Amino acid sequence: MHALDVLGDPVRRRILELLADGEQSAGTIAVTIGDEFGISQPAVSQHLRVLREQGFAVVRPQGQRRLYAVDPSGPREASEWLSAFDRFWMPRLAALDTELARGRRRRRLDAEAAEHEAPQDAERDAEHGPEHDSEHDPEHDPDGGDRPVDPHPTKET
């Protein structure tokens, strides 16, 4: 069986995900997988056997329990096989990384510019006072007149 055939089964992939977090007992794996996939303990045992036989998992006895862990040789074999295809996606991933870096740089520069402008706005307001900023004064006519705007204008017919 090829390494990717082993990984093609969602139950075996999930077992490997559990084992990637650290050593697990067969019973713990069976309960978790049984709950998630609705399969029996003997079916989980069969998946564990395939993982062992194909070099993806190792088992060691501890009293009455069997503890499983990832065997790095299986994932390494799959990774080596997949590396032949790196040329198809690595340039695209590199381009994505470049675009993400540009976006981070742009956001950083925009934030720095905003920080730099904020103190200048505060200085201008302190020098001229807020009454000179008719743009932000809702009490006055937008045309710059000094007459207050009627908050409840009547509709002409």
TL;DR?
This protein is mainly α and 157 residues long.
Q: Supply the CATH superfamily name of the largest domain.
A: Winged helix-like DNA-binding domain superfamily/Winged helix DNA-binding domain
Query: How many extended strands?
Result: 3
How big is the Rg?
33 Å
Strand order of the largest sheet: 1-3-2
Based on Cα principal axes, name the global outline: elongated
Biggest beta sheet summary: 3 strands, antiparallel
- CATH topology of the largest domain, by name, is Arc Repressor Mutant, subunit A
Number of helices: 6
CATH architecture of the largest domain: Orthogonal Bundle
* Helical content (DSSP H or I, runs of 4+): 55-70%
Q: Give the tally of structural domains.
A: 2
Structure, explained:
It is a single chain. This protein is mostly helical. The protein folds into 2 domains: 3-77, Arc Repressor Mutant, subunit A, CATH 1.10.10; 85-128. Helix content is 61%, strand content 9%. The chain has 6 helices and 3 strands; from the N terminus they run ααβααββαα. It has helices at 3-7, 10-20, 26-37, 41-53, 73-83, 86-128, and strands spanning 24-25, 57-62, 65-70. The chain has a 3-stranded antiparallel sheet. Strand 2 and strand 3 (65-70) form a beta hairpin. Helix 3 packs across helix 4 (41-53). The relative contact order is 0.09. The model has no long low-confidence stretch (mean pLDDT 84).
